[in-house]
Fold this sequence. Notes:
Elements: E1 3-7, H1 12-22, E2 28-33, H2 40-48, E3 54-58, H3 64-78, E4 84-87, H4 107-138, E5 143-147, H5 154-160, H6 166-186, E6 192-197, H7 208-225, H8 235-248, E7 257-259
Parallel strand pairs: 1-2, 1-4, 2-3, 4-5, 5-6, 6-7
Helix pairs in contact: 1-8, 3-4, 4-6
Amino acid sequence: MPSYVVTGSSRGLGLGFVQAISNDPTNAVFAVVRSKSSASQLLDFVAKHSHKNVHIIEANNKDAHALQNAADIVSKITGGTLDILINNSALMAHERGGLTLDAFPSPEILEDDLVLYFRTNAVGPIHTINAFLPLLLAGNTKKCIAISTTLGSPKVTNAADFGNYAGYGISKAALNLAIAKYACRFRDQGLLFLSINPGLVKTAQGPKEQVEAFYESRNKINREKNPDFEGAITVERSVGDILAFIDKATIADSGKFVHRDGRDGDSF
């Protein structure tokens, strides 16, 4: 029975992964959330799901001990193995998330925000990977995925003139490099690591008109820089493409930062 761990599963892309993977009754899916109390969409899905192959585990990715406990729970159910780890948990939305580096109210607030992003989006996935490494090495598929973004690419940042979302972009750039470091360390053991850009996915919450206006604005801005920009896409399309690429990715791809279709992640 193939086994998957998906972090950040309470909503959006993470929930989409859980839904898609669990459609196959032969898969075992471990949905990791910070708190079950804030994961109502996931809880509702699991309660109604006919296959009963989804296990919900609480663990904050900033808590290494909680993540180790999560890995122990998975190990007991799978017999000490894990096939695929999908690091999806991340911090993006924040009251000052859209600021440029020079626009913060004070140096102290700037530093606090950057550290928060770094702990959640870079250190958190590192703790997660370390906790599940023994299980991945004992698994059959041996694939570790990090959901990233082109906002973490210096090349795309310059090409698209993305001066804002500084904390998010910087932390994701660190994550991309961490994935490359892991790839170097474990390539000889057949454990594949990938950073994948899922695209501009429609996961924003709020009134329908406000959300649609947001994505229309993002599409317009992106197409001014790249007329071929595909536009915002659904969770289902993004998840389907990512899972298809994960399935065909080989150890030769390890350490790369790519778009969900396998293109170089540093392309806009």
